[in-house]
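Students often ask why we bother encoding 3D structure as a string. The short answer is that it lets us treat folding as translation between two languages. Here is a chain of 333 residues written in the first language.
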Amino acid sequence: MNKYFKQIILLISFLIAGNAFCLSQDTLNNYSEPLTKKILWIGKYPQHKNDADIRISEKIINFITGKKTIVLKKPISVIVDNSDIMWIADQGMHRIIKVENNFGNIPKVFKKDTNNFSSLVGLCLSFDNNILFTDSHLNSVFLFNENKNQIIKFNKNSELKQPTGIAYSNITKEIWVVETAAHRISVFNEQGKLIKRIGKRGKNPGEFNFPTFIWIDKLGTIYVVDSLNFRIQIFDKTGKLISVFGKLGDGTGDFARPKGIAVDSYGNIYVADALFNAVQIFDRTGNFLYSFGSQGRENGKFWMPTGIFIDKKDYIYVADSYNSRIQIFKLSK
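And here it is in the second language, the structure alphabet:
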């Protein structure tokens, strides 16, 4: 009995000592000048394609700890909180998954049949460490409080039309919600009161044609993916238009199906393009810098990537939707 116990303890120690995200030194691409950075592939979640690929050793650990590796179906959005916990909106599972130390968990409140979210899209961290997320079929924004294990509807007094992207501004304490079907942005305060709406359908600057994802940087600047105008629109913290860039095409720096957007600590703009199966990088003025990724299932390749998130350490998380995984990269010197 002692012999087997010691073997299990050694196995646990070995697995914990390994990196949770399959660390790799693979360098995918270098930035063009004047940037001197590199995009490094770091790892992925889950490490395995399906339950059958999970090693016996991991199954033993899962049994002992009560934790398990959740196999994703169609991850759409991903964020990472201040505790380095990953949160994933999985449209195929109709759930939000919490990933800590490479172990996935579905919070209890999401396991209830009454909370079967049919079309999860956007996900963001908000005030008081709450998580806000959108369901485009339910036309709603929901607030998830992990400590209370509670989900409440956020836009109780305001009608939304196909909400998709969502972002929280630490500068103005506002929540910006993209209404794809209404071709506009709705802005709420922390109490869920509608403050203002920005935009209408059109092709002129400040107008939208089925916008989708959104990002707000540390300065409060807002970046909106104006999807079927095939461009990015940038606004200041008050909603005043700053600039527009991008066009439909198949050339370098063009867009085909732009989806998620994020900004790194240097102000560079990252856009995941589902049809290009790549992430394109632009400077603050919209000049193309570089791209990484191509179609495939190997590490560093994508199959219709959707959401993207960049944390304070410039780790880049991409929801590789049709490969059913999250890929992690690092902007490095």
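Translate back mentally: The longest helix spans residues 2-17. Keep this in mind for the problem set.
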